[in-house]
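Database export, one record per block. Field names are fixed; values are copied verbatim from the stored entry.
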Amino acid sequence: MAIIVNVDVMLAKRKMSSLELASRIDLTPANLSILKTGKAKAIRFSTLNAICRELECQPGDILEFRDDE
């Protein structure tokens, strides 16, 4: 897929664990893991908003497009 999810990068920059983020945004650790590994097929804007709020970042810090040519 051409969309890369960089949640793990932002977590490392903020020195926050996945479990802490999941708890703060009311998401199960399993669903956050699916998102982090790039296995998710979609993300709700409300979830993206919560991630950006807690990690103090922009959506472009979380999602990146790379052409699969």
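Remark 1: Helices lie at 7-14, 18-24, 29-36, 45-55, 59-62.
Remark 2: The CA atoms of residues 10 and 55 lie 7 Å apart.
End of record.
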